[in-house]
Amino acid sequence: MTSPLSKKAPQASSAATGSAEQPRTPFGLVERLFPICRSITGNGVRETLAILREYLPELVVHEVPSGTPVLDWTVPAEWNIRDAWVKNEKGEKVIDFRQHNLHVLNYSTPVRSWFTRAELDEHLFSLPDQPDLIPYRTSYYQPNWGFCLAHHDRLALPEGRYEVCIDSTLDAAGALTYGELLLPGSSQEEVLISCHCCHPSLANDNLSGIAVATFLARHLAEHPRHFSYRFVFIPGTIGSITWLSRNTETVQHIQHGLVATLLGGPGNFTYKKSRRGAADVDRAVAVVLRDSRLPHEIRPFSPYGYDERQYCSPGFNLPVGCLSRTPFGEFTEYHTSADNLDFVRPEHLSQAIDIFSQVSNVLETNRYYRNLSPYGEPQLGRRGLYKGVGGGTEGADWQMAILWVLNLSDEEHSLLAIAEQSGLPYRLIERAAAALLACDLLAPVTQSSK
Amino acid sequence: MTSPLSKKAPQASSAATGSAEQPRTPFGLVERLFPICRSITGNGVRETLAILREYLPELVVHEVPSGTPVLDWTVPAEWNIRDAWVKNEKGEKVIDFRQHNLHVLNYSTPVRSWFTRAELDEHLFSLPDQPDLIPYRTSYYQPNWGFCLAHHDRLALPEGRYEVCIDSTLDAAGALTYGELLLPGSSQEEVLISCHCCHPSLANDNLSGIAVATFLARHLAEHPRHFSYRFVFIPGTIGSITWLSRNTETVQHIQHGLVATLLGGPGNFTYKKSRRGAADVDRAVAVVLRDSRLPHEIRPFSPYGYDERQYCSPGFNLPVGCLSRTPFGEFTEYHTSADNLDFVRPEHLSQAIDIFSQVSNVLETNRYYRNLSPYGEPQLGRRGLYKGVGGGTEGADWQMAILWVLNLSDEEHSLLAIAEQSGLPYRLIERAAAALLACDLLAPVTQSSK
Amino acid sequence: MTSPLSKKAPQASSAATGSAEQPRTPFGLVERLFPICRSITGNGVRETLAILREYLPELVVHEVPSGTPVLDWTVPAEWNIRDAWVKNEKGEKVIDFRQHNLHVLNYSTPVRSWFTRAELDEHLFSLPDQPDLIPYRTSYYQPNWGFCLAHHDRLALPEGRYEVCIDSTLDAAGALTYGELLLPGSSQEEVLISCHCCHPSLANDNLSGIAVATFLARHLAEHPRHFSYRFVFIPGTIGSITWLSRNTETVQHIQHGLVATLLGGPGNFTYKKSRRGAADVDRAVAVVLRDSRLPHEIRPFSPYGYDERQYCSPGFNLPVGCLSRTPFGEFTEYHTSADNLDFVRPEHLSQAIDIFSQVSNVLETNRYYRNLSPYGEPQLGRRGLYKGVGGGTEGADWQMAILWVLNLSDEEHSLLAIAEQSGLPYRLIERAAAALLACDLLAPVTQSSK
Question: Do C244 and C320 form a contact (C-beta atoms < 8 A)?
């Protein structure tokens, strides 16, 4: 009497058995992290971050004591769970946390007692419209206990008495745990990449975001950087609030930021703009998605969603958007046991890493130039810039990129603005600017003169 | 030989017989006012205002002497009419003002003489395309006399001689009459509601506007008000010009204004923006109509129309729009005997009063707030704001309203702006702000600090 | 073995035989200029300008010595050509410049030698997709020689040896020639009309532009002008660069400008905006095309195209757009022998002259006015402005034009802005302003007070 589990269904007992011999791929990381029972505090997050440190040795793990005031909130007691089950009168487990860690209401208080069927039912959560799926439910701030199960299984529970065990702890002397990685660049100005790491066995939400952020960090670490990149792996809401409360100085260095989430499932890329609406990061993501020729959607800011809610609160108003595929609540697998390893497509993780990497490239290379030969067009032929670098359309686009960069390099248009206005790929605009710079036809505009 | 008249067709002889026992409904008011032969001056307006004083005892009636210079104009001689007819050689009345007061060209000069059929014809007005309807025609500023009649009736007039009588007076020692009601609020800042009261027996144009304004005033009088509300019942064009010329001080207090007209006929609400185009009243009407979910249309300002032409002349440039249903000239009954009591729907009057009332509510409650906990989201749960006030979608909208108000209360966004940006109903935004204010999460921004 | 030539095909030998007895029509001018073999320098341009001086006696011809530095460029050696042919072993001409002057690669270096079929082929240019047409090819800045021919003819050339003669000269002591006409107005502020005159026998590109500019100049010369009009007939690119380099003072007087090109072929008017995007000339052309009720297209600026590329380089950033019919590269006849006299429609030239003339009228008459009776509407009736100048719709539009001009003459809206906002034809707005000015209801806003 358990849910029909896929072969990849998590079993709490195997939570920490990820093998270091696995090839270090984004999807491999998702597979290793999937079985762990995470929450907004506790050992599940610590275990997750310990695995991430295998991929990112410089990752720093922070522990913030329960009870610490953080902005308008307080760090809650730390929750841990060893086991949980419901037995019938025959002593048979009818619900078993060890079969699937979604079975327990996240942050359930400890309980060990007998209940009637009716009493038990008040602590059960299921989805009548999706009767085969286990829902994901939490009760962080209202003390409660409960079990989540497939609706079919719930209906099949006969009258009678049930023994309930939730072997959990809520430790007021515990801590909230988060991970932070700083990749220093040549500038103190920072790009923030944030992902939530508080969900138990849900693959798309948000092991996909964790994997993309991890492999993006590994990629960026290998290249010179203008910006410093700060990656935070935090529990949702309370984690970003905790981080913000401890980093009011750091926050002032953040020039651009993205929340990374829901990047492995199906559906098109969807970008939700920052509260500012036309921040460079908003424009950069829009241009990169445009250039990708992938179908995608750009949405305005709204104050609901992931941790961008906190970064974009009016007091901070950071230029942080949220890049995902199909947003939360818009796919039927959302917050159910169907958000499993089968739901995440390895190639979507790679594609997302590429898109984030391209956004980083735009932010890194975007700047203002001044045309040093602004009166009429300079004679391109004698500088070898008249013919295209390739043949056909590429050549025509290259020629147009040269002309656009020359025409708009008036100290008022960034390369990003030129890519937007010309409709040409950013990479082509960037290369055209490099070629013109090499010919002494452009000069970068320095911050002070800009 | 008269037009086919409906049972409700006006008879000048019964003009002042409205019964006080009628229930005081908007449509009842329209019915009482319908038979009166109004013009831009004269006893028809006085009689109308006397009836309005039964509904609005504080209404002040102003008399401005003929010959008074008003802006670029002069108050004309006062026109009154006792009788008018055309008789054939047998002495039979073939056109009779007492059958319908549209039969006489409004502002006709007095005449008593015999004319040939051809001579008479030069003074007849009819509608070949709508041969059953009597047109409404005026000649305020070019002395003339004439009769309006159904085109079928005109064609049926045989050759012969006709005796014509128009028993009218044009009194250079007369006056222009208008009504004005001030509902004082806690502020000297004013909202202007203007409607024209110069048309004879036309029900939609503009007894509908008069009835809506009257019952809106009764409604507002019963509630506390921030703004003072000024209602003017004026003859079209010359009336608003006269009022403006006498109120150059008052005009400076007008913060918002609406012309109320054509509110009883069929068709969707149509709002014509003020000359400013994005005045608060323009935005408030747009949001109220959006929230109503009624089909409607928003149009840009144009310098033709009703008295908004005068209020929005460049010297005054007041934020006054015009709210109607189907605009003038766009329905076939316009300015004909078909604009009768059958054409006005009582429920449309009520709906219009409700819309005006909601616009008033937006203007009254719209203000700027400051989020007192702007760093991250405040913890709503411990303040009882996390769960919705109702169930289902209402709850989700309520939660979103709370988040939007918190996010945008940065002293830069009014509640109206938040309603616009969030797409949520203004009333929900208003209630969310009230709830947050009660929790000390918001503070109103005072005028001086704003 | 020659291309199938139309009766109007150019023969270099008859180049200068234009008859002064021809009626001086735009199309007649195109016909006279068509046979001349022009290039960016040389006698073809001189001959062209000499003919234009018959139409525009004040046209000044400038000669700028080869080797002169002009902005980032240098005036090239002057190219002239007397004859060119390819003969087969039998001495038969298989390609003959005298049959069509497109046959020679423009700016070919001199050559007189024998070549194998394969050697010759490297110097041949044809269009496989348009096998009947001779392409137009140039090599101004890379020394080369070559022949252009129909692809069918190229394929029909058998193996064997060929004698090649190109009897051309490249004279480093030569000059670049251009024409310039200034029509002085009452103001030193200038309108620039620019057209390229460097293409050999191509009728639409750009004899059409030359003809339109010429007849526009003749038209404007007959009327009083506020602006001074400067017409330049210049070789493409190097010509405008040369002119700009010699006129850095003049450039500062240019208030508006248009490049005139491709105005005789089929297709709709297409306007490419100046780099500024909302310059008066951009708005004037848009309103004139709108008022014309002709289908048309307005495009944003792009840094590719005709000499607007130079005028709109960031250092100059002149308000110069480009008005054409179907733009370059978007019709199959472009830069081929099919762009011949049959391709140009005489009535399209007339229509283009009319459009340019109307744009000029807008620029001449566009100004700001102040309503001298801005409080309420002035009484139009007593000034004879109440009834329309014509009947029906014209009358209604006229009345609306009066009201719009009164309402928006607040010193902030030009007549052009009023035409845009009202949707009414500019000419009607202009006439309404004149009528109101005559009634002392408007006063022009002087430059100093504006």
Answer: no
